[in-house]
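Example 3.2
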Amino acid sequence: INVRGYRAIYDKHSLIHVAAYNSGNKQYVPTRLGLAMDAVHNIKRMYNIAKDRIYVTGTSGGGRCSAMLGLGFADVFDGAIPQVGCYFFTRIMSLENPKKGWSGRFNRPTGAIFRKAKLTNRFVLLTGERDFNRNETESIHVNGFKKLNFKHATYLEVKGMGHTNAPAKYMEKG
């Protein structure tokens, strides 16, 4: 994510942005997830942070990773803002073509972690009107989060935007 575009928002809301170098799509997904978990562990040691304000975000493949982390590790993260890419843990049918769908990409969280994800955590699925992942993202919102009664799940679609980072005002809204 291009932090420069979001710096004013992070400052306004007293947020710290942490990102790993060389953690793009060419990196093995479990390694990417581990880097995010490691970042949370270390940032808690380095700063006195609010324990209920730890969010994960990413763009495209990073958005997919942030969705997995936000759901699968709801005890570590308080929410996720996947941008122009998202995964869910169960098969999702397309809103545009009921014969098409996407397989679940990770195991469903269980017990207290799943309850926290559904009742407390916040999920903002951010995509663009022209993003090639738009249908999948919107379908995950409707046929995943909403269908399973997640309390705090929002879908934001940026008019005219393709497969790129959302404008800063949408990140702030999220």
